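Note to self: keep these together.
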Amino acid sequence: VAHRLLSLGVRPDDRVAICVERGPAMIIGLLGILKAGAGYVPLDPAYPLERLAYTLGDSAPVALLSQQSVQPALPVSD
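Structure:
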């Protein structure tokens, strides 16, 4: 995960959002973000869309890690 984030241009002190259900995938994602030197912005997939959109807009992460099952519900823009 860390190598993939670095290859995407994530640099130390960048913010990376993570929106996954609690479990092993969350731990792997968090450790990968930290190993890349970035900080993480935790997002709960159960949050209302408005709250997710506000948090993403306010924190301005450079990347977003998510599970395929929650991707359709995420308010992201290109």
